[in-house]
Amino acid sequence: MNRRTLLIGASALGLAAFGGGAFFLNRQRQAEAEAVAAANPAVDPALLVRPHSPSFGPEDAPVTLVEFFDPSCEACRAYHPVVEEIRRMFPYQVRIVFRYTLFHEGSDEAARILEAARMQNKFEPVLDALFEEQPGWAVHGSPEMDVAWEIAANAGLDVERAETDKLFPGITGTLNQDMADVEALGIRQTPTFFLNGKRLENFSAESLIADVRFAVENA
């Protein structure tokens, strides 16, 4: 057996091992997804996505990721870049929907800032800014909402107009409906994610991306 034959043989073994590993991981991911599906049956879609819900990605995307989030929640801040990465990775395959889950003092005001920003087509930059500078305003027990408004203004929000718009009855209706759905779904912590109608449990940043990737590849 010459050197060339040995190299070809080694390469073939390497490829076989890689293929076997990928196959095993895919089967493992499928088994995990089936276990999650069995433990968490799909819920009523109407409770997850409302016509008023802020969303990104095609409405007819094969995969929908719904995040129940609180603007004052540190974990939601930590997961925000992960959600942004999912948007970047799957711009046409995944629709991301945001639902308000107002568990902290000051969260109602923060959500009104975001909804007022949405009326000015500034939802995304204001959301990014509020999360980025969250430690400066979302102080538990003593939120600094004046600081939150300043952050939103620096992100491009017309504050004078928003101060009026935040009282728009439609915004109150949005927040009330979201919290009614939070209660109906039994959500007790944020962020809570639903992938194609099924709640994700005990997720990490890596597993969230992996679950979305698996859903995309099997849509």
UniProtKB/TrEMBL annotation:
Keyword Disulfide bond: yes
Entries under Pfam families matching the protein: Thioredoxin_4
Domain Thioredoxin: 27-187
Annotated keywords: Disulfide bond, Oxidoreductase, Plasmid, Redox-active center, Signal
MF annotations from Gene Ontology: oxidoreductase activity
Gene3D superfamilies recorded: Glutaredoxin
Xref: InterPro entries: TAT_signal, Thioredoxin-like_fold, Thioredoxin-like_sf, Thioredoxin_domain
Record has Coiled coil as a keyword: no
Signal peptide: none
Role played: May be required for disulfide bond formation in some proteins.
Similarity annotation: Belongs to the thioredoxin family. DsbA subfamily.
Protein name: DsbA oxidoreductase
Organism expressing this protein natively: Frigidibacter mobilis
High-level lineage: Bacteria, Pseudomonadati, Pseudomonadota, Alphaproteobacteria, Rhodobacterales
